[in-house]
Write a structure and sequence with these properties.
Blueprint (H helix, E strand, L loop, with lengths): L1 H18 L13 H22 L4 E3 L3 H22 L6 H25 L6 H27 L5 H20 L6 E3 L3 H11 L3 H6 L1 H10 L11 E7 L5 H17 L6 E5 L13 H14 L6 E7 L22 H11 L3 E7 L7 H4 L4 E5 L18 H10 L6 H18 L8 E4 L3 H24 L6 E4 L15 E4 L1
Parallel strand pairs: 3-4, 3-5, 5-6, 6-7
Antiparallel strand pairs: 1-2, 7-8, 9-10
Helix pairs in contact: 1-2, 1-4, 2-4, 3-4, 3-6, 4-5, 5-6, 9-11, 11-12, 14-15
Length: 493
């Protein structure tokens, strides 16, 4: 037994040398089935111990990781056998496996140190640089192991490397790399949140929706003849992260205060704090809301503003999620159908989610303005629980529309701001998309002009006070020479 452990130490020393790309030969290793088994068990032990250390203070053990380890070993033996039999034509299956296993221990420990000391203190870009360097190092060492066992550098070495890449590395990476022996335990706060969701009466919540939605819809005011009324619908689709709740509420308040949607605005939100008194963000509620707005607005002159914020998928589905309810995600085709069936002509659609650019082509027409947080093949940023906004929401709502009335100008400036921020933070560009229909563009210009006049009139009313006189902005029942918003002052005795 002492010889077996002495040979194991010899192999581990040889593995360290290979990881340093030190020139060595098979004579520096001890080859036997016994050594291969010891290295396999040593590798598993190192993974278990180091994984426990990294996931302190409350690690949770995953017994299914043994299956992943077994799969990795099986694929390693298959790969080395293929190389030995069909490329190198030498019985080196066990020998090459021992070289690779001896270096694997070093790589496991190196990545654990990176996880423990570095990962939590770096940005995303730096993480990918470190990960790329680690991967390159791994590939070079595997190549060096094959060269060492072959004894020289010939065309068979790169050929063997590529064979190993597709018969061992890629299958294990794809099927088993994400399986670890330990995972961080749930924090008390997270556990409390999930407990609250588990205790929900999902059936009662679901069947309360028609009444809640009808209550909110009944408060929406009808259109005013001769006035371009703006109706606002906000969608906060993902219940487990507060950022979507915060952003949707901010958007509604912003449009109520600056764009005259107060009394003509509604939010559909998935969140633990709002489900009992507000309608949920579901595909059914969205469809019914659009149908109702289409029935009370003047379709020839009024404008719908739809702001949607949630996660999104690469197949262009906007996430509607409130576990444990099995909600339907929104696809571009579904949203186009809802809008068309409602009869709403003038549409402004803003979507903050990953891959949201996939909605542009299905929704675009001459009467629609669309702004999305990302291109069809790109992710967007800011979807974290501690944020008040996504990157798209912060740029558009907080930084642009609080001072800018022109939606096309705000879209353009927000896009530039997001690109600058992503460059500054070394993030992959999300490439927000904007499409303004030819017919809606003049209407939006007319709307922004009316809002600016209204704002200036409000300022003038506040400044032009005299003895015994007061001024106010014209009310909605006053006759004014404006097709957008009432914007003149009345003198009152």
């Amino acid at each position: 037994m002492s010889n077996a452990f002495e040979n194991l130490i010899t192999n581990l020393r040889g593995g360290i040398g290979l990881c340093r790309l030190k020139k060595s030969g098979p004579e520096n290793f001890r080859f036997s089935p016994e050594q291969m088994i010891l290295l396999i068990f040593s590798s598993i032990a190192v993974s278990i111990i180091s994984g426990y250390w990294v996931n302190l203070p409350d690690p949770s053990f995953n017994i299914y990781a043994f299956t992943a380890e077994g799969f990795s070993v099986a694929m390693l033996l298959l790969s080395t056998h293929i190389i030995a039999r069909f490329i190198l034509h030498r019985p080196i299956t066990i020998d090459l496996s021992i070289l690779l296993l001896s270096t694997g221990l070093i790589f496991t420990l190196a990545w654990r140190v990176i996880e423990f000391a570095v990962i939590d203190h770096i940005d995303t870009s730096t993480y990918w640089w470190i990960w790329g360097g680690y991967l390159l190092w791994l590939f070079v060492v595997i190549f060096w192991c094959i060269r060492t066992i072959h004894g020289s550098l010939s065309f068979k070495v790169p050929l063997s490397f590529f064979a190993m890449l597709f018969t061992w590395i890629v299958p294990v990476w794809y099927l088993a790399a994400s399986t670890s022996f330990w995972y961080p335990g749930e924090t008390e706060t997270l556990d409390d949140a999930y407990k609250a969701y588990r205790e929900l009466d999902a059936e009662r919540m679901l069947f309360s929706q028609p009444e809640l939605l009808d209550q909110d819809l009944s408060t929406l005011q009808p259109e005013r003849p001769g006035v371009v009324d703006v109706y606002f619908v906000g969608i906060g689709g993902y219940a487990l992260q507060d950022v979507f709740l915060k952003e949707t509420r901010f958007a509604k308040n912003l449009f109520d205060q600056r764009f005259g949607t107060e009394g003509r605005s509604i939010n559909l939100i998935n969140h633990l704090s709002t489900y009992s008194d507000s309608p949920l963000a579901t595909s059914t509620n969205l469809e019914k809301t659009l149908q109702y707005i289409g029935s009370v607005m003047n379709k020839d002159e009024d404008v719908l503003v739809l702001y949607m914020t949630s996660h999104g998928s690469s197949n262009h589905e906007f996430t509607m999620s409130f576990w444990p309810l099995p909600l339907n995600d929104i696809t571009p085709a579904m949203l186009r159908t809802y809008l068309d069936d409602s009869g709403i002509k003038w549409r402004v659609v803003m979507i903050s989610s990953c891959y949201s650019g996939g909605f542009v082509e299905p929704l675009k027409n001459d009467y629609t303005a669309i702004a999305t947080a990302a291109a069809p093949d790109r992710k967007s940023f800011g979807c974290s629980n501690e944020n008040d906004f996504t990157y798209f929401g912060e740029a558009l709502l907080k930084h642009q529309l609080q001072s800018e009335y022109s939606l096309p100008v705000a879209f353009s400036q927000a896009t530039a701001e997001i690109a600058e921020r992503e460059t500054r933070e070394n993030l992959t560009a999300s490439k927000p998309q904007v499409d303004i229909g030819a017919s809606i563009a003049p209407l939006l210009d007319k709307l922004s002009t009316g809002l600016q006049v209204h704002e200036q009139a409000s300022l003038n009313c506040g400044n032009n006070t005299g003895a015994g006189q007061t001024y106010r902005v014209a009310g909605e029942n006053d006759t004014v020479a404006s097709d957008t918003y009432n914007s003149r002052c009345h003198m009152e005795e």
